[in-house]
Automatic annotation (TrEMBL):
It holds the Pfam family TctB. The keyword Membrane applies. The keyword Ribosomal protein does not apply. The chain crosses the membrane at residues 36-55, 76-93, 99-116, 123-142. Residues 7-147 form the DUF1468 domain. Keywords: Membrane, Transmembrane, Transmembrane helix. It comes from the Bacteria. This is Tripartite tricarboxylate transporter TctB family protein.
Amino acid sequence: MFRLFLPIIFFLVGATFLISSLNLPKARLGDPYGPMYYPTLVSGLLILLSVIYIIQEWRKRHDGFPELELLLKGRTPFLLISTIVLSLIYAFLFEKIGFLFSTIIFLGGLLFIINGRKKWISNIVIAICFSGLTWYSFAILLKVSLP
């Protein structure tokens, strides 16, 4: 039954987006339903593909599930859980301390988890340079306001 977990999640996400897109306000200029077309199309496709995925996985429900065993081997569970935790911390810090510093912390933490402490110099340099270049590109070159 674990096979059906992911396609059901996709279906629920698609249904949620479909309901949300149908509740979008109408445009005051041009076609009043214009803002609804694209999200409705994408969420409808997600629901359709999720149903196909559910049917495919339902047919294979009695077969083994080697992908799950691979997912639970080695460092993979640690990497998954630590990435989720770091992402939650990043989302919390993003509004508090802004894009630049929260991205440096997030990216540095992620690189330390993946590469280990032996490559600490490259982890720090990559985290600072990537975050700085991204901030510079958006804030200075493209004039996009970042928190």
